[in-house]
Specification:
108 residues, mainly alpha
Length: 108
């Protein structure tokens, strides 16, 4: 999934650059992304600049896609767990109601 996302993003960036400037020169990631994501802490932000934004375009995109897909996987697994917990709570509620009905004697 990460490599597919990288391929799509990289191809789109090359096509858009060709349409805008007429060449396909590979620049750094900071030339493409003018607005950067920052944490607000100087020590962390300088490392983010070095590790992500100052890289050559293909390396920066691979890092960006890896971080994005990791975050997406974490969110997806958290949502899956939340839905599973809700489903199990409903089943337990049904079992408790069924158990209470069987425990009470019926008037015949």
């Amino acid at each position: 999934m990460t490599l597919a996302a990288f391929g799509v993003i990289f191809t789109l960036l090359i096509v858009f650059r060709f349409l805008k400037y007429g060449d396909t020169h590979l620049s750094s990631l900071s030339d493409i992304f003018r607005n950067r994501f920052y944490v607000g802490h100087e020590g962390i932000d300088s490392h983010v600049d070095t590790l992500v934004y100052d890289q050559v375009l293909p390396v920066g995109l691979i890092l960006f896609c890896l971080i994005f897909s990791s975050g997406l996987a974490l969110v997806a697994s958290a949502l899956r767990d939340i839905f599973l917990i809700r489903k199990l709570k409903r089943r337990i509620g049904r079992l408790e109601r069924t158990g209470k009905r069987q425990d009470t004697p019926s008037a015949v």
